[in-house]
Specification:
The complex is a heterotetramer, with two copies of chain A (165 residues) and two copies of chain C (159 residues).
Chain A lengths: L1 E8 L8 E4 L4 E5 L6 H11 L29 E9 L12 E8 L4 E5 L2 E3 L1 H8 L11 E2 L6 H4 L2 H11 L1
Antiparallel strand pairs in A: 1-2, 1-4, 4-5, 5-6, 6-7
Chain C lengths: L1 H23 L3 E6 L10 E6 L13 H18 L4 E5 L7 H15 L3 E5 L3 H5 L3 E7 L5 E5 L2 H7 L3
Helix pairs in contact in C: 1-2, 1-3
The chains are: A alpha+beta (165), C alpha+beta (159).
The structure holds adenosine-5'-triphosphate (2 copies) and magnesium ion (MG) (2 copies).
Amino acid sequence: MFLKRLELHGFKSFGKKVQLEFERGVTAIVGPNGSGKSNIADGVRWVLGEQSARSLRGNTMQDVIFAGSDGKGPLGMAEVSLTLGGCEKKLDLGFDEVTVTRRLYRSGESQYLINKTQCRLKDILDLFRDTGLGREGYSLVGQGQIDAILQARPEERRLIIEEAA
Amino acid sequence: MFLKRLELHGFKSFGKKVQLEFERGVTAIVGPNGSGKSNIADGVRWVLGEQSARSLRGNTMQDVIFAGSDGKGPLGMAEVSLTLGGCEKKLDLGFDEVTVTRRLYRSGESQYLINKTQCRLKDILDLFRDTGLGREGYSLVGQGQIDAILQARPEERRLIIEEAA
Amino acid sequence: SKTKFSETFREVQREFQSIFVKLFGGGAAKLHLSEAEKAEEAGLEISIRLPGKRMQNMNLLSGGERALTAISLQFALLRVKPSPFCVLDEIDATLDEGNLGRFAKLLSEFAQDTQLIMITHRLGSMEAADILYGVTMNRENISQLVAVQLEAAAAVLGE
Amino acid sequence: SKTKFSETFREVQREFQSIFVKLFGGGAAKLHLSEAEKAEEAGLEISIRLPGKRMQNMNLLSGGERALTAISLQFALLRVKPSPFCVLDEIDATLDEGNLGRFAKLLSEFAQDTQLIMITHRLGSMEAADILYGVTMNRENISQLVAVQLEAAAAVLGE
Ligand SMILES: Nc1ncnc2c1ncn2[C@@H]1O[C@H](COP(=O)(O)OP(=O)(O)OP(=O)(O)O)[C@@H](O)[C@H]1O
Ligand SMILES: Nc1ncnc2c1ncn2[C@@H]1O[C@H](COP(=O)(O)OP(=O)(O)OP(=O)(O)O)[C@@H](O)[C@H]1O
Ligand SMILES: [Mg+2]
Ligand SMILES: [Mg+2]
């Protein structure tokens, strides 16, 4: 299983739709301060089901919706889609390619989709439960978080091994 | 008042005596990871009277004594001396040049000196009380600590202004 | 006293605004005191607007933007109440090259009145320095000082 | 189950030791489980020895040494239980050029089995990448993707 594509539209600083295509190997994302690199990492975390606004640097979840800039007015919705390939054996779905989509409206209303079919947040969380995807300190390391594993209590560290086992 | 000199001997990775001379303006301290740069900052903090081993990255205060390396055995004492010039108007001492020295022995015994005269820790703390020297978030910013001022509670931030006033 | 505090606060407010705009090349920055019944409960609130962006929750800032905002406030305090010397350990670590350049310019301004001791890995900060001290581990694994030439440092940094 | 845990633990222990030595160019690293009455109170303890130095309290490590130790453990976990992809945000920020070079070598090894997405400001990490994505703010202050050539990135980084 591997990451194929990520689309962000109205998510944080992505006031216009942006699409990233991924290949095997190492992808480096580069650019100036405040350009949107960590926002991409937040987009991945969010579409995989992150429920804490704080861990996305927001006060409320609506903070992830594009708030406007000098050049463009605020948007009413944030949407992120993540597409994985080679899923047939790994995910319990019978498809080789799987796209998960998450939308949030200013009203607070949310939508979740798997391969364009509406579902609940729970379905997305269940889908990825045993893959380790989206887990901080394992498949996601946030900015400034690399030494969290050293700062953690020894019992918490042991849990990381247990989850891997 | 300005910094003239800093001497470290047996303090952390300074297994042999090292002396830094300072001039007006900007001094940059550079070198590889683990070479001893932050240990110099710790030396300044320590000689100005730091009492928390934790803020010097130690478990106990004796952790600041050179513990030995492949090339040299552990030492029995840590000593740091800091020399300031232009002190006549600023410090209540009647000298233009002031040297403060702090020593710690493995036994836990400490010595404090101002211009080679033994004194108590309290005398060093009183000497620098109104200068702002050695205060974290003001004249000392530790590694990774620059945004502590943003993380602080608003009431704590107001206190920083009060201390400056 | 209350008037000394208000006076100091206004000066820091002014310096914070001016240094912020220098470092970010634009935008705006405000400090204000929150209302509180007891004086000890009053808080110092920060609100900023980055150039070209709208005023936002401070948490949404990027790593480099946070560092530069903190540096603006730190240096505002140092300008209003200078310390004989400051030791700053890798405060430029998260700045991109553009921000680093403006930061290095600010260092040169401050060097007139305050002795700044900067521990750094960044060439831009090294170029703003009047003196360079090199620290390395010697063969016995003890810290030693070495003479550093800016060109040699640049080479080591691969620049 | 208890045996699966011991098995996983031993593998992580082995990988941690081996990756640590690769990244630091020497030294030693051990993981052990502390004794506890209840299984949930057992802790994972880390003890390391840096090349040429004596075993010491982990807190005394420098910023870069901490990061490299954490990276060793992180990558040991990823080798024992690979994730389909990883997003790593500026984990190389505090590494000096020497450590960065060894880290970049490790990335190339891992790229075979795990898709690594590295947000970075460091040229060494960019050179280890198969693909480079540039992100910038456009004139309307919206994030956009731009094509990046390594030579151009090097120039911007002043290198
Ligand atoms: N909802 C939103 N609407 C508009 N802009 C936003 C929103 N949320 C965050 N931003 C902007 O995104 C920027 C931060 O982006 P990000 O954290 O991705 O930067 P970065 O590229 O990681 O930078 P650095 O290299 O400094 O870490 C901030 O300037 C912030 O104002
Ligand atoms: N008491 C001690 N005896 C011997 N060595 C010590 C002692 N205390 C700390 N050290 C060593 O000092 C080193 C850390 O030095 P320091 O924190 O100054 O590094 P640094 O130059 O700031 O590196 P970085 O660029 O990674 O921040 C560690 O390798 C540690 O083992
Ligand atoms: Mg970032
Ligand atoms: Mg350091």
